[in-house]
Amino acid sequence: MDFIFLEEIDSTNKYAKDNIALISDGTIVYTDKQTAGRGRLNRKWVDMGKDNIYASLVLKPSDTMLAVYSNLTQLLCLVLCQTFEEYGVIPKIKWPNDIQINGKKISGILAEAVIAENSLKGIVLGFGINLNTSSEVLSEIDQPATSLNVETGKTIDKKEFLDKLTAKFFLLYNKFIEDGFLLIREDYIRRAGFLNKEITVKVLNEKLFGLATDITPNGALKLLDKDNKEHILLIGDIL
């Protein structure tokens, strides 16, 4: 794997997409300062200083889009949890791929595919991690948030964390492409903080309320509404 470090960039995902032809498979693009980062549904990911992680992983598994590629965010989510656990914290997944500690967000993922001339040029997995942020800065965010240094009481080495994360990801990656979400389903469910709870899920412009009962073999969320109607959700965000 390769690393590309940029001192400042508008967005690591945008840089990766714009330069996809020049970036080799398995490359991590990361920066100290991101000026126009964004999360899922065009949410802005707040830049909280150079000691946090703003990064994108570039993957080129094939020139054809396969269904399993949509689960790569869940693989990265699980691997992030495993990496956090090495620091003695207990992360929980908020479907599909946000991570919380003690009910507060610490990481999010944004996946984007680059397709040109009917061919898949690459997949970009962007992720932000609150690695080293003061409690004062965290309190200014418009949702409950935490950082790894606050949770552990220690300053976290950014490059060391990235090395741990990428090593774990590529240990599973090839087999995951072959076997799909089933390879990690049990480990993912074990860390799910939303199952067997009543939740509200935003799906495009619709909101669904019900009991989160399970994660299917392909990573979808099963939601049972008040009329006992089961919904199988492939996309959406838990509010």
What is this structure, in a nutshell?
The protein is an alpha+beta fold and 239 residues long.
Word description of this protein:
With 239 residues, the chain is α+β, with helices and mostly antiparallel strands. It folds into two domains: 3-190, BirA Bifunctional Protein, domain 2 (2-Layer Sandwich); 198-238, SH3 type barrels (Roll). It is built from six helices and twelve strands. It has helices spanning 12-18, 72-85, 135-138, 148-152, 158-179, 185-190; strands spanning 3-9, 27-34, 53-59, 91-94, 98-101, 104-116, 119-129, 198-203, 206-215, 221-224, 230-233, 237-238. Strands 1-2-3-7-6-5-4 form a seven-stranded mixed beta sheet, with helices on both faces. Strands 11-10-9-8-12 form a five-stranded antiparallel beta sheet, with no helix packed on it. Strand 10 (221-224) and strand 11 form a beta hairpin. Helix 2 (72-85) packs across helix 5 (158-179). The protein is globular.
